[in-house]
User: What shape does this take?
Amino acid sequence: MPAFLTGHFYDVANPELWVAVGLLIFIAIVVMAGVPKLVATSLDAKAAKIQGDLDEAARLRAEAEAMLAQIRQEKAEAEAQAADLLATAEADAKRLEAEAKARIEESTARRQALAERRIAQAEAEATQEVKAAAADLAAKAAQQILAARIADAKSDPLLDQAIGQIGGKLN
Assistant: This one.
C-alpha cells in the first residue's frame, strides 16, 4: 500500500509530508514559469531540425539516384556511339582497302601496258636497226665485190647504174 494513503503520512511532524509538499510547490513553480512550454518548444525545434535534415537527405538521395540514372544512360549512349564509330571505321577501312586494291590493279595494268608498248617499240626499233645494218652491210659487201670486179675490168655503164640504184633501194 502506498505511503500517502496511510494516516501517519499526513502528520505535520512527518518529514516525508514536507518533502512531498516541497516537491508539489517546485512542480507548480516550474509549470507557472513555463518550463514545460520551453522544453516542448526546444524539442519541437530539434524535431523540426531533424525532419529538415531527413528531408534534405531524401532530396540528396533522389538527386544522386537521378544523376546515377543519367550517368548510366550517358554511358549506354557513349557505348552505342563507340560501337557505331567502330562499325563505321571498319566499313571505311574495308572500303579504302578495296579502293587501294583497285588503284593498285589499275596502276599495275597501266604499267604493264606501258611496258608492253615500250617492248614492242624497242623490238620495232631493233628490227629496223638490224634491217638497216643488214642493208648497209649488204651494200658494202656488194660495193666491195663490184669494186673488185670493176678493178679487174673496165668500167661498165650498166654496172655503175645498178650500183647507184642499190643504195636507194636498200634504205
Summary: The CA atoms of residues 81 and 87 lie 10 Å apart. The chain is about 90% helix and 0% strand.
